[in-house]
Amino acid sequence: MVPMETSDVSSAARDHPLLSVFLWTVFICSYMILAPIFGYLGDRYNRKYIMCGGIMFWSVVTLTSSYTPKQHFWALLLTRGLVGVGEASYSTIAPTIIADLYVKEKRTCMLSIFYFAIPVGSGLGYIVGSQVSTVAKDWHWALRVTPALGLIAVLLLLFVVQEPKRGAVEARAELHQTSWMTDLQALSRNCSFVLSTFGFTAVAFVTGSLALWAPTFLFRAAIFTGKKAPCLDEAHCASSESLIFGIITVITGMLGVFSGVQVSRQLRKKTPRADPLVCAAGLLLSAPFLFLAIVFAQGSTVATYAFIFFGETFLSMNWAIVADILLYVVVPTRRSTAEALQIVISHLLGDAGSPYMIGVLSDSLRKTDSFLWQFRSLQLSLMFCSFIAVVGGAFFLATALFIESDRSRAENYVPIADEPIVVPKSGRSTHVPVSSVLI
């Protein structure tokens, strides 16, 4: 799923500099709107079939969009928005299936494997998108690579994956679905879920900003230092920077997710607050490295890429751990809804607007249209990402204050009647026998 997010955007941008931002925004907005719908369905119906339908629809729409002429701009935006169907169906439901198949350390390990797809897929999107469109001399071909992978995913889901019973692997008593409003109220009172969601929003903000602007920034830095000649079609000329940045993203993604899980596993032996503390450390450590990468871009290309490497590694430590936090502080029948709510908040306040915000900030800081100020204004605006990373780290530190009580509450959850006490005319108080309606 994730490779298409980047390959669609970066490849299409070669024909129009602003197209990447529009495509990204349309996709994220569609993703946010559809996520709660699939979250509701995922808590109540067969999750495997829902994912299969979403991925199949995604594959068809992606393939269709590859035949959209570039002059039909609104048709391309529409198909790009419809891609959010597959992404929303998969991202909200897949982690809950993993949660119902594995517990504790085993689940954390499996989630780390699953979340390799985010940084690795994003990096491969840059690599595949740039190379395919260069070879074919047409960015539309970058959209025709992954639908076949979507078909393979559907076949594997249908014939390999079994639909697990919600909460069965945790040896829970029978749990029943509650109303959507009841689920939302319960999640809003879950401090660990709320605070970790805001922390993850900071991760999404920084990741989205880097995904859209890092290759352009690196290209402008090369022009500023005289290592490359100016180019009218900046998106096309920055293909080498996109390739290098994509390779770095793949490597740091795998290294960051793996190291985050391992550090958390070792730290759990000393404190039950290990997960939010590791997430906080990842964001707080990534902030200075990303700042140094932005500063050193005007002096040393090697140092810039080295700092990006460390910054993205620490940033990637959060992915699997945040998912695990959500799964063990939320009861099984509300997990898909929680996943959807976290997606909406993190994208709405994170990467849905961060690329546009960085672009607007860069334009406002640019004093002239010279190559110097094209570089300098973007450099100054990207420094905002380091500040957001620090704020995200603070949210995870706050999560550590509530993680023990919220986890204990979820693990020892006892359903009670959802109906109020009824007082008959005789004066005796009795509970309405509604055993099937549970909180």
UniProtKB/TrEMBL annotation:
Topological type in the membrane: Multi-pass membrane protein
InterPro entries: MFS (IPR011701), MFS_dom (IPR020846), MFS_spinster-like (IPR044770), MFS_trans_sf (IPR036259)
Pfam families named among the record's database cross-references: MFS_1 (PF07690)
Residue intervals of the Major facilitator superfamily (MFS) profile domain: 1-409
Transmembrane segments: 20-42, 49-67, 73-98, 110-129, 141-161, 193-223, 243-264, 276-297, 303-331, 343-361, 381-403
Subcellular location: Lysosome membrane
Family statement drawn from the similarity comment of this UniProt entry: Belongs to the major facilitator superfamily. Spinster (TC 2.A.1.49) family.
The protein, known as: Protein spinster homolog 1
Organism per entry: Characodon lateralis
Gene: SPNS1_1
